[in-house]
Amino acid sequence: MNAPATTSMPRALPAEHRERLLRIAREVSFPQGARLFDEGGHADRFWIIRTGTVDLDMRVPGRRAAVIESLGHNELVGWSWLYPPYSWHLGAEAASPLRAFEFDATVVRELCRQDPEFGRNIARWVGEVVAHRLHAARTRLLDLYAPYGSGSRG
C-alpha cells in the first residue's frame, strides 16, 4: 500500500525546502532483509527511498511482527526522529535491495529551528505521514486480528 501523493516528499514540500533538505542528504544502500531500525530504538535519522521497498512492521506479543505498510519511491522512512523522545514506533526492513537518501535527524531539527517556515513545512509533511501510518496500522491490525477484519476490503 503506497502513501497518498501528499505524503511523498516531492509533493509535500515546496521546491526550495526540498532542495535544502536534499543538500544535506547522504546516499546509502541496504541489501534485501537489512533492518533499518527496530521498534523502541533511538530515532536519530530518516530516509527518503530512491529505489526499492521498505516494509514497516509492528511487534505483536506472542506472534510474528505484523507488516503494517510497504513503502516505495520518494516515501519517507521514519518519522519518530522529529518528536521527542525520538524512539521508533515501528520497525523497518528492506523488502528489496534499497537505495535511499539518509538524513541526520539532529541536523534537520536544527534547520527547522533556524528557519520556522522550513520547520512548519517539515512538521506538516511528517504529520501527514504520521496520520497516514496510524490509519494504515489500524486497518492492517484489524484485518489480521479482528474477527471480521477492518471492513475496508469490501
From TrEMBL:
Residues 9-78 form the Cyclic nucleotide-binding domain. This is Regulator. It comes from the Bacteria. It comes from Streptomyces dysideae. InterPro entries: cNMP-bd_dom, cNMP-bd_dom_sf, RmlC-like_jellyroll. Gene3D superfamilies: Jelly Rolls. SUPFAM superfamilies: cAMP-binding domain-like. Pfam families: cNMP_binding (PF00027).
